[in-house]
Amino acid sequence: MSQINLEKAIGHQEADFPVAWLKRDLLLYAVGIGAKATDQTLVNDKDWAPFPTYPVVLQFKGEDQDINDFRKRVGGSTAPGLPKFDPNRGVHGTQSIEILKPIPEVSGPGWKLKKRIVGVSENKSGIVVEAETLLVDAHGTVYAKLYGSSFNLGAKATGTKFAKRIAGPPPAKDIPKDRAPDHVVRDRTSPEQAAVYRLSGDYNALHIDPKIGQATGFGGVILHGLSTFGFAARAVLSAVGGGRPDSLRYFAVRFSSPVKPGDALETSIWEIGPGPIGTVEVAFVMKNLDSGKVCLSHGVAFVKKVEKSKL
Ligand SMILES: *[C@@H]1O[C@H](CO)[C@@H](O)[C@H](O)[C@H]1NC(C)=O
């Protein structure tokens, strides 16, 4: 066993993780993030496009068609220097995705995720590990770049404050305090939302077995954070991107409180100025109307704006 030294983990490249998907997986994902029967460009495979945030599920799905063993999937990093983490006390802190190229409807062979650790920090409550993940095809072309962090509650290396980071997503800008949002999108998750979303590859029992959520203090099943992430992406796409899947270039959130299947969600969206390469930068926050709490904060998106047709 290597010695615990958080510094040593930074820059560590994990083994390549093979991934694959079919058109059916993309349609199933769309329903998992709340697409309705009326969202024809998402659920009808005629005149449609894959929803752009799909790559976030691949870290769980891998190339499996059938269900997988969640505990093996999140078996932790092989990075040197990290202490052993308790998988039951890891929570998803942040997630971002930069879409570099639209993904094909069927992956075909040879796709993989290339993941490296880009940041580690420790404080009194635990250890945060941040990773950068690239989705690449068989020729090495990069389609998406993701940053995600997990907060390992109660984990300890030295017990003293530590933070180091060699790469990361652009920081979120503050929500304008002096004006109402440009768009407000209301939506509701269904009681079956987690049962459907898990079929995209995240089979963590916390999202299907009410007993686990009760034991963990959530009072029952909670929805996958990445399903809520997808609800917010749909909201931003419909409000700013004219509902066009190819309009979304970057999307990021911080997970701040749980959502239960059936909860109603409200996304407040501000267009705050020009973003990179002809996009509009968007700041957003999502509130869970049932708990009354913000469930996604620090929202950032870069969207190619599509003006609504005036006809
Ligand atoms: C430790 O870091 C986490 C994640 O950034 C944060 O949520 C938490 O409030 C911090 N705790 C303390 C005691 O600073």
UniProtKB/TrEMBL annotation:
<dbReference type="GO" id="GO:0044594">
    <property type="term" value="F:17-beta-hydroxysteroid dehydrogenase (NAD+) activity"/>
</dbReference>
<dbReference type="GO" id="GO:0005777">
    <property type="term" value="C:peroxisome"/>
</dbReference>
<dbReference type="GO" id="GO:0003857">
    <property type="term" value="F:(3S)-3-hydroxyacyl-CoA dehydrogenase (NAD+) activity"/>
</dbReference>
<feature type="compositionally biased region" description="Basic and acidic residues">
    <location>
        <begin position="174"/>
        <end position="190"/>
    </location>
</feature>
<dbReference type="GO" id="GO:0004300">
    <property type="term" value="F:enoyl-CoA hydratase activity"/>
</dbReference>
<protein>
    <submittedName>
        <fullName>Peroxisomal dehydratase</fullName>
    </submittedName>
</protein>
<feature type="region of interest" description="Disordered">
    <location>
        <begin position="166"/>
        <end position="191"/>
    </location>
</feature>
<dbReference type="Pfam" id="PF22622">
    <property type="entry name" value="MFE-2_hydrat-2_N"/>
</dbReference>
<dbReference type="GO" id="GO:0006635">
    <property type="term" value="P:fatty acid beta-oxidation"/>
</dbReference>
<dbReference type="InterPro" id="IPR029069">
    <property type="entry name" value="HotDog_dom_sf"/>
</dbReference>
<dbReference type="InterPro" id="IPR002539">
    <property type="entry name" value="MaoC-like_dom"/>
</dbReference>
<dbReference type="Pfam" id="PF01575">
    <property type="entry name" value="MaoC_dehydratas"/>
</dbReference>
<feature type="domain" description="Peroxisomal multifunctional enzyme type 2-like N-terminal">
    <location>
        <begin position="23"/>
        <end position="143"/>
    </location>
</feature>
<dbReference type="InterPro" id="IPR054357">
    <property type="entry name" value="MFE-2_N"/>
</dbReference>
<feature type="domain" description="MaoC-like">
    <location>
        <begin position="178"/>
        <end position="273"/>
    </location>
</feature>
